[in-house]
Amino acid sequence: MIVALIAVAPFVAAVFAPWIKTFAGPSAGWILAIVPAAIFATFISFIGPIADFSVIRVGLDWIPAYGISFSFFIDGLSLVFGVLISGIGTFIVIYSGGYLAGHPHQGRFFSYILMFMGSMLGLVLADNVFTLFVFWELTSITSFLLIGFDHSRQAARRAAIQALVVTGGGGLALLAGLILLTLITGQNSLTGMLTTAGAAQESALYLVAMLLVVAGAFAKSAQVPLHFWLPNAMEAPTPVSAYLHSATMVKAGVYLLARMTPILGDTEPWFWTLTIFGGTTLLMGGALAVRQTDLKQMLAYTTLGSLGLLVLLIGFGTKEAILGALLYLCAHSLFKGALFMVAGTIDHGTGTRDITVLGGLREAMPITFIAAVLAGFSMAGFPIAIGFLAKEEMYLALTSGLWPDLLFLAVLIIGNALMMVVGLLIAFKPFLGDLRPTPHAPHEGPLSLYSGPVVLAVLGICAGLFTDWINHAVLDPAGGAIYNAAVDAHIHLAFDLTNPAVWASITTWALGGVLFWKADAVRSALRRTGETIGWTFDIGFDAFMSGLVRFADRTTRLLHHGRLEWYLLLMFTTLAVGIFAPLLVTDSLPPLPAWPVLNFYEWGAIGIAAIGLIAVLASRTRLTAIVALGIQGFAVAVIFMLFGAPDLSFTQFMVETLTVIILALVMTRLHLDEADSRDLETAVRDGVVSLAVGLGIAVLLLVVLQTDLDLSLTELFRATSTPIAHGRNIVNVILVDYRAIDTLGEISVVMAAGLAILALIRLRASTSGTRGARAGRGRKTGSAR
């Protein structure tokens, strides 16, 4: 049960966050951080059992009829993500208390960030795929609120909408993919699908399901060409950027791909799709990061590169690649969370994030400087940082000598070198050299601002010293969950020159060092290249949205043109097609029944209906036609009476009578006494549609009458009407008790129609009064002249 409480607790805290902010003031961040800290401690307590390959499950029936439950589970993979989300989330909440101190909407921000945390925790803990989808979409919604938090700025609103459109569209693709997987495997839980691993790959629908799931993951984890929303999301406050890039949102797609590896992986389409798109994203993200000068934008684009790297490694799917991905996932979360908070602290302390105007801050901000250096070293992959272990393991996975491995090894080396440049630039450029003028005097932030960066940066360095614990507690259970087989990790800190992975690291450092030395020239070259190309995916998104709006406008003008005649024509034509098309396609047209022998009073009812039909066709005014149409209703009422349904007959008589009375009352205001003139072509068209609909209804009734009569409902109503509903009139009991909601709906429709008629009458009276006043003024003016 505690697993379910983990996912619910942040949402409960989010409800009370504004009140806590009101009463606790500056200490609200520290108080609210108790919630993620408690969740973190709970996850830590699960490390022992999970390391012994236990799986903790809990579930609650949600939609039992379809076997859908609100279920959660913790295994090695979800535990790693849970620890990162809650641990980093603790420092993000504390950081938010200092960074947004004095903001009038800080309480609302706390609510949003806690809901964001809860959404991500629910996502990585979800077992049922539809539970996963619910939390998947909640991350999109809460990120929309956070990115657009400063909603007074147009750029923030645009970035929030862009993120919602891209990730929401990917979510729809994911939902379709999950439904397909449920149909293919016969399971709607991740644990169930894992027991049928291999079934999806053998299905004819495998490729479609795989592409849909991958599309959802790519949209969330910002893979090319769906990457453009992530840098724009930097319009959010820095705590959001730090959390979104380190442990939440963008890591959701990586989690999904890792979780789906046993179910969809180990195929050629999976391998090439993930490696090509992941490698492209890695190179593009790294290059665009070096091109930037804003600290947050530099870090945002390196996140693109890091996500591409993780996707590429998951696509390879070997044991070494999986272990490298897990190590890099942890390393990236630590150093990226620290560096984003460093960037925010620099902005908070100087008033700018432009790296070209920053310098000499080491004396004014010494603690931030230490955190930046440690995090930058981990990002560069220097020994003894956990980033070094991750880099060695991923290189080891690609040193087989085969051409695909060599190709992607080169991609990894270039991508890691580019990210190393950014890490070193942020670690040293703002702090070394002479102190430069900034918008306000630089100063170190409060404890709430530098506690998170320091702790995360130190962990990123020191974690590399505890390889035995990492192997047993992290890599073995998490790697086994992804690899779908037992994994015995032997990561250790070493620098063996006989190992080709070490030479790949040396090459990375050499290339990164040269690029760092020539950073300004490289940035200028990349900017000139971008200006030459001109077009970006961001521009393409704007063009797409503009075209979508224009298409919607034209479609609306086409379909909602305001002509009631065409609405009715389309509606009845569609009805006729909808009746006849299935019958013709399935060859289900009923045979014509024999003409029955009728009594004289039955002939009389038919005669009344025929007279009413002739009267409708021969009428010259609208009112006459409507009243004549009532004759048809009276004929139906007579039939009800003749065949033993006097209550229905009475109801029908009342409806027709009231219709005539109401129309007689309003005819003078709605001009129902006017004639409708139509040309021959229009009359023929309307007549054909009318005959088609009438004939279709008649045919449909024949089909119904020629099926076997099922009396089960009749017997149920007859047996239960008196003892349960205490009514002897079964029809009344059906209307009032069994179909109470339906009857309420019918009453509501009648009320709405009555209100509409009243509105029309008042509008017509108001319009007539205005016209009369205008005419009177015109006559007076004419007399004066």
UniProtKB/TrEMBL annotation:
<keyword id="KW-0812">Transmembrane</keyword>
<feature type="transmembrane region" description="Helical">
    <location>
        <begin position="364"/>
        <end position="386"/>
    </location>
</feature>
<dbReference type="GO" id="GO:0015297">
    <property type="term" value="F:antiporter activity"/>
</dbReference>
<feature type="transmembrane region" description="Helical">
    <location>
        <begin position="688"/>
        <end position="707"/>
    </location>
</feature>
<dbReference type="Pfam" id="PF20501">
    <property type="entry name" value="MbhE"/>
</dbReference>
<dbReference type="Pfam" id="PF13244">
    <property type="entry name" value="MbhD"/>
</dbReference>
<dbReference type="GO" id="GO:0006811">
    <property type="term" value="P:monoatomic ion transport"/>
</dbReference>
<feature type="transmembrane region" description="Helical">
    <location>
        <begin position="161"/>
        <end position="184"/>
    </location>
</feature>
<dbReference type="Pfam" id="PF00662">
    <property type="entry name" value="Proton_antipo_N"/>
</dbReference>
<feature type="domain" description="MrpA C-terminal/MbhE">
    <location>
        <begin position="684"/>
        <end position="762"/>
    </location>
</feature>
<dbReference type="InterPro" id="IPR025383">
    <property type="entry name" value="MrpA_C/MbhD"/>
</dbReference>
<feature type="transmembrane region" description="Helical">
    <location>
        <begin position="204"/>
        <end position="228"/>
    </location>
</feature>
<feature type="transmembrane region" description="Helical">
    <location>
        <begin position="566"/>
        <end position="585"/>
    </location>
</feature>
<feature type="transmembrane region" description="Helical">
    <location>
        <begin position="270"/>
        <end position="291"/>
    </location>
</feature>
<feature type="domain" description="NADH:quinone oxidoreductase/Mrp antiporter transmembrane">
    <location>
        <begin position="126"/>
        <end position="409"/>
    </location>
</feature>
<keyword id="KW-0813">Transport</keyword>
<dbReference type="Pfam" id="PF00361">
    <property type="entry name" value="Proton_antipo_M"/>
</dbReference>
<feature type="domain" description="NADH-Ubiquinone oxidoreductase (complex I) chain 5 N-terminal">
    <location>
        <begin position="62"/>
        <end position="110"/>
    </location>
</feature>
<feature type="transmembrane region" description="Helical">
    <location>
        <begin position="80"/>
        <end position="102"/>
    </location>
</feature>
<feature type="transmembrane region" description="Helical">
    <location>
        <begin position="132"/>
        <end position="149"/>
    </location>
</feature>
<dbReference type="InterPro" id="IPR050616">
    <property type="entry name" value="CPA3_Na-H_Antiporter_A"/>
</dbReference>
<dbReference type="GO" id="GO:0005886">
    <property type="term" value="C:plasma membrane"/>
</dbReference>
<keyword id="KW-0406">Ion transport</keyword>
<feature type="domain" description="MrpA C-terminal/MbhD">
    <location>
        <begin position="608"/>
        <end position="670"/>
    </location>
</feature>
<dbReference type="InterPro" id="IPR001750">
    <property type="entry name" value="ND/Mrp_TM"/>
</dbReference>
<keyword id="KW-0472">Membrane</keyword>
<feature type="transmembrane region" description="Helical">
    <location>
        <begin position="298"/>
        <end position="316"/>
    </location>
</feature>
<feature type="transmembrane region" description="Helical">
    <location>
        <begin position="449"/>
        <end position="467"/>
    </location>
</feature>
<feature type="transmembrane region" description="Helical">
    <location>
        <begin position="501"/>
        <end position="519"/>
    </location>
</feature>
<protein>
    <submittedName>
        <fullName>Na(+) H(+) antiporter subunit A</fullName>
    </submittedName>
</protein>
<dbReference type="InterPro" id="IPR001516">
    <property type="entry name" value="Proton_antipo_N"/>
</dbReference>
<feature type="transmembrane region" description="Helical">
    <location>
        <begin position="406"/>
        <end position="428"/>
    </location>
</feature>
<feature type="transmembrane region" description="Helical">
    <location>
        <begin position="600"/>
        <end position="618"/>
    </location>
</feature>
<dbReference type="InterPro" id="IPR046806">
    <property type="entry name" value="MrpA_C/MbhE"/>
</dbReference>
<keyword id="KW-1003">Cell membrane</keyword>
<feature type="transmembrane region" description="Helical">
    <location>
        <begin position="649"/>
        <end position="667"/>
    </location>
</feature>
<feature type="transmembrane region" description="Helical">
    <location>
        <begin position="30"/>
        <end position="48"/>
    </location>
</feature>
<feature type="transmembrane region" description="Helical">
    <location>
        <begin position="109"/>
        <end position="126"/>
    </location>
</feature>
<feature type="transmembrane region" description="Helical">
    <location>
        <begin position="322"/>
        <end position="343"/>
    </location>
</feature>
<keyword id="KW-0050">Antiport</keyword>
<feature type="transmembrane region" description="Helical">
    <location>
        <begin position="747"/>
        <end position="765"/>
    </location>
</feature>
<keyword id="KW-1133">Transmembrane helix</keyword>
